[in-house]
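Posting this for the archive.
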Amino acid sequence: MTTIASGTDTLTRDALTVLQPGFTGTTAPDWLLRRLGEGLASVGLFGRNIASPEQLAALTAQLRAERDDVLVAIDEEGGDVTRLEVRSGSSFPGNHALGAVDDVELTRQVAAELGRRLAACGVNLNWAPSADINSNPANPVIGVRSFGAGTALAARHTAAYVTGLQSAGVAACTKHFPGHGDTAVDSHHALPRIDAGASVLTERELAPFRAAIAAGTRAMMSAHILVPALDPDRPATLSRAVLSELLRGELGYTGLIVTDGMEMQAIAATYGIERGSVLAIAAGADAICVGGGLADDETVRRLRDALVTAVRSGELPEARLAEAAERVRELARWTATATADPAEARPDIGLVAARRALRLTGAASFTPLTEAPYVAAFTPVANIAVGDETPWGVAADLGRLLPGTRTGSHTGEDAGREALAAAGGSRLVAVVRDEHRHPWMATALDDLLTARPDTIVVEMGVPQAAPRGALHIATHGAARVCGRAAAEVIAGVQAP
């Protein structure tokens, strides 16, 4: 039953309603339940909140016992960015693998199955898909989270993903508007800038978002990026020109606009989260995402009070805050009445997609391994969106197929020589991730292939570097199913 504390005024309730905070732990803390009673309408979940599907279902039931229309949001892209399976790796390949297959029906089916699993756990809003076009190969934060570098490719798969996810009754939140692909800076750390002209943005970056709107995406997430062609002064999240004039006005979008995490340095280091939240709502955002890093009651109180103070001082029109709060409630009503497509579940669809996404070079002359190899994982620093707690690679699956498989993680200028020494007489399998972005990784492969030309190379990032090795396997992502699919090829296991 929805409850609202009797002493909470409308302005304060609206200020709480537009917040999407996080918390720590696998059960809801008392402060969060109290805030739900006072008007908080959304909660964001992260990997730290999830131990199992059963625990997650119990957690969401606990939240709904306090407020039955609560929006429970999660950052579950599948692929490299997973919260449902943060400790094991995802059962679904990410966008780049789906783009490599380029079968929109497969993308729809993958998104639908992911949506079914979220819905079964009580999650009804997914901060996905990423509609960013990977137009800059040096991008440190998008990469395999993108369907690819082609505009039409990204557009048709974004639409298919939105359709599939929402067919399960889970609202899609397409991100990161107006497009985070053409950046070389991670907005978790600093403010990226895109200097493309307005015509390029219209024809390239905006196309997948137009497709998402046409497909009926229920939510859209803004990017913390500066795009001078649209607004020379403020990042998109804080820009009326981007959110109200472009997204709402020109593109005709009427759904919920959610900000990216406000504690990300692109906003927090320049404006602060309180000021940034006020400016975001004033610019046209409807919901403030916070909680990836700042996950406590004090953060909720600070943002609530900042919004209330801004209204009372005249800086933020009360009608704008009320409009934002109503859009949150409107989405909550949709999730409460959305009916799931009764189509049969496809629990294996993620592995099917991962197998289809493999691109093999040298397979014609390759003989599958029959003895346990040494797997050298050349490990880059993970970006914050992916996190470093999710396992990746092929060693675990090769160990099941070829018992006795050994593995080690290597990094830095001596990585190749270290891997050679560790391998001894075993056959080498080198696993890399975005070799084109890491000179030390390319050097390591040079060392391995000079000494051991029979080395097998598995590229689990964006395959920009030239294929090399006795066999080169491009998986287009580092999800668990991508590693399994690659291991099957190496060991010569026939997929059913």
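The radius of gyration is 23 Å. The longest strand covers residues 171-177.
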